[in-house]
Amino acid sequence: MQLGLIGLGKMGGNMRERIRRAGHTVIGYDRNPDVSDVGSLAELVERLDGSPRTVWVMVPAGGATQSVVDELAELLSPGDTVVDGGNSRWTDDEKHAAELGAKGIGFVDAGVSGGVWGLQNGYALMVGGDEEHVQRLQPIFEALKPEGPYGYVHAGKVGAGHFSKMVHNGIEYAMMQAYAEGWELLEKVDSVTSVREVFRSWQEGTVIRSWLLDLAVNALDEDEHLAKLRGYAEDSGEGRWTVEAAIDHAVPLPAITASLFTRFASRQDDSPQMKMIAALRNQFGGHAVEATE
Amino acid sequence: MQLGLIGLGKMGGNMRERIRRAGHTVIGYDRNPDVSDVGSLAELVERLDGSPRTVWVMVPAGGATQSVVDELAELLSPGDTVVDGGNSRWTDDEKHAAELGAKGIGFVDAGVSGGVWGLQNGYALMVGGDEEHVQRLQPIFEALKPEGPYGYVHAGKVGAGHFSKMVHNGIEYAMMQAYAEGWELLEKVDSVTSVREVFRSWQEGTVIRSWLLDLAVNALDEDEHLAKLRGYAEDSGEGRWTVEAAIDHAVPLPAITASLFTRFASRQDDSPQMKMIAALRNQFGGHAVEATE
Amino acid sequence: MQLGLIGLGKMGGNMRERIRRAGHTVIGYDRNPDVSDVGSLAELVERLDGSPRTVWVMVPAGGATQSVVDELAELLSPGDTVVDGGNSRWTDDEKHAAELGAKGIGFVDAGVSGGVWGLQNGYALMVGGDEEHVQRLQPIFEALKPEGPYGYVHAGKVGAGHFSKMVHNGIEYAMMQAYAEGWELLEKVDSVTSVREVFRSWQEGTVIRSWLLDLAVNALDEDEHLAKLRGYAEDSGEGRWTVEAAIDHAVPLPAITASLFTRFASRQDDSPQMKMIAALRNQFGGHAVEATE
Amino acid sequence: MQLGLIGLGKMGGNMRERIRRAGHTVIGYDRNPDVSDVGSLAELVERLDGSPRTVWVMVPAGGATQSVVDELAELLSPGDTVVDGGNSRWTDDEKHAAELGAKGIGFVDAGVSGGVWGLQNGYALMVGGDEEHVQRLQPIFEALKPEGPYGYVHAGKVGAGHFSKMVHNGIEYAMMQAYAEGWELLEKVDSVTSVREVFRSWQEGTVIRSWLLDLAVNALDEDEHLAKLRGYAEDSGEGRWTVEAAIDHAVPLPAITASLFTRFASRQDDSPQMKMIAALRNQFGGHAVEATE
């Protein structure tokens, strides 16, 4: 089938390639003319034959996605379908579905996992929306997903795809934190000769074997003590939203939240709160404080 | 080769079977005569031919392991080797090595992972000790470990095996907590039709695919909403030791520790600390309290 | 001076009393005619002499406050001032200020602390808004605040009052949790004869002496082991908002967030996430699970 | 009465002064001859008249305390009493009591709070030991404690004093963390004009008023944004022991533990665990990493 794909960055570019390899026609648009197949969104919509048309949006969550949805609401026709495959907050999905639905345009939200490995291994897809809209996209979902029985789910109503992907990322935060904590502790112990070899051994037969563990071994093979890296980690929004959703539902998420907070702390050159701790210790105990340089 | 194996419970019994399948001779001893090959530890040692003899101890950590080590120190001869494959605290290993070493008996500590799946898939082994003692055990380690390049590591000096296994379990706690938190949050959201199917889809193509995730799907297939289970979890000691080791080394372990604390809380019928919170809220705000029945 | 006061519940009723004791005129309105001085909001506004009028809103945050603000926007005149002294989210303040400002009506937000002790001890006030509006209210703030140099601050622009009060409550959560954790641990130890007497002794000379500690001793005097209480605690919204604000600003709040999560957990009859932990332990280790009754 | 006092550092020196002001005789010993009243422990014991003698040990916990106790076991006589007022781990107390008890010497453990303010305000005392030994020390306890009904407790058996003091310090960690988190969050918000003034206002009428809050205001008066301090905090051992005791008793301590871990993290120039997070993000997502300089 034919698909319009908006956003050809690290993710979108590889997805175009994977869908084409499956024999579908993809017309891609990106603001960067070097990678774009067409010169404008309007041209992309024109180039899509007949009706119904299907357009996949793969641009940054928030304002960028909103403005593409606004444009598509003008350019598309009743019966067409828009898929938001970006990392949008699930609360945006209902708004987009309503805005497009008012014009008779269908909306599907798709959480996409797979990162730089997706072109080769396939992208896991968590999809939300009405059955009729989801059904229309099925050939594209089949092209993108990994082979085998897993890697795709119609998770529920509009928003369920992004919500599931968001929780996936929250879990990911805590799993990464789990390995990271274990790694730091093992590195501190004199009796262990090579932490890297311990990690490598865990890849089979253990309870904690996983793809993330395989990646950790790859990373340690490149730089055994990660000496070239700073202990600095961004967060992409989905960890934050997971905690906010948990607060809305009064669900305690101690491990996921701890994993988010260590990232926040990793980006501080000096910790304001620990200045206050140092100040208080000095006040009551006369404990020495360290001065900034 | 020939191995004496002490402790033929859930783990030891299956290990005897797997080692025998690899063509080795195992003489097993257990206090339970139904499963034991010999009537006593002394008989087990006598039945092992010639020298050097090798005895694998697979009994509960702490007192049980200590008393077996004490007996073996009397029964074995210089040049023999003892392996402690139980879940001993790494700090016990040096004591056992010294006690046996004083008699010329070698000591190796082995952290063993694999649970009820080990007979079929192999047991992951993290081993600590001197190269000469570890070398002597190599055929047994080969028999126990999974096929393929992973699942075995000589982690370092005496204690390094149990330390690595302990950290493995700490990581395991936080990974389980990660999936558990995500599952609870997804179950709270109306838009998601089936959390089980979302979990199932994650088994391929996602960043969080893992063996624990596969097990979670198994569990949800047996009981989709885990309605038959109480939210009650024991802890086996290794999570506690991981946190204690982290404290010794001043390593922050927020996610692993949170995972330990949720287990503690799960075993309380009512939370004493939350009684105090309720009491304080009542004191300053006149907030209603709930009475015990 | 003259003040209209809307909302005469546990807080508002006592505040009316304290302001009157200071010699001011308070006309109070409440939906409950037993405590109300007037029959309607319109009547309250009419009864306030001349201009400018000042109306203090002390109703539940959210919808109730919004609808009172909407009504006041219609009833009041340019130059009048509205104070929101409820537990509104700071993000509502700018909206209310804009809505009223469009009619020339001033807006001040006031975070109020003091609970059931406020009538006697005074209410601590954290106030946000333009200097001219805050100035107009000064006699009322003086009447409400405790004697002495503390207990009142003009914290900043519109929203700063509620934001400061919200952080106050976040800190309160973690302080309560601190005492609660310590209390539970002491209660577990055989060597300590009376935890209540230990708490009592801490009221002077220690680093942790505080008003909350005094309240804890009061509570233990009423019920030494809090045996009559359930370990169940509501949360009022401000703890949640504190964590959300921290996430917005990428500030790690591990202790405050932990304190919020223990409250969430205290309200669950059984923990869904711990069911998953139990299920996973059973899957990989054959560990026994507890069935629901 | 007459007291031998060993250790005349920041704490011991001031305690000698406070006890003398109350009219008692103190013979102090310190390795530093500039502050010592006698030249050796032996001389100190000799100088104490008759029997029973009472010696207060105020030296660093661990090896230093142990060696003083060992010496005193040789120098003192049956019927004498030793008080350990240092920050010893409660588990040491039973050992010291047994060692001294074997010679007929009594032992009392005393947790002492008050820091640099103790000389002026008095020291809070949490005391463990047999009633007969505690009774003998009563005049000294009276001299040290603050005026008024609080600040002293005979908490229970040997060890109960240090255990109570340890929990006191654990609570202190989490209270400090509570204020520190709130301070950092307030400092991030543009609408709040002066966080220092907000803190100052909290000193009366609020739920969170406390001595630590007063100290925080002092610190902010000296350096409004704590710009001169590094966010670096040592920990003295008692926070660690609190968490270890909690683990022994399966008590969840999320806020206190979080407060300990933020201190650990504050002392790391770069976070090893966050290097692993950065490495994993790079592996699966191609996310940029920051290189060490």
UniProtKB/TrEMBL annotation, chains A, B, C, D:
GO molecular function terms noted in the UniProt entry: NADP binding; phosphogluconate dehydrogenase (decarboxylating) activity
Keyword Oxidoreductase: yes
Organism: Streptomyces scabiei (strain 87.22)
6-phosphogluconate dehydrogenase C-terminal domain sequence ranges: 161-288
Biological process, per Gene Ontology: D-gluconate metabolic process; pentose-phosphate shunt
Keywords: Gluconate utilization, Oxidoreductase
PANTHER family membership: 6-PHOSPHOGLUCONATE DEHYDROGENASE
Assigned protein family: Belongs to the 6-phosphogluconate dehydrogenase family. Belongs to the HIBADH-related family.
Protein name as annotated: 6-phosphogluconate dehydrogenase
Record: active site: K165
Pfam family, one: NAD_binding_2
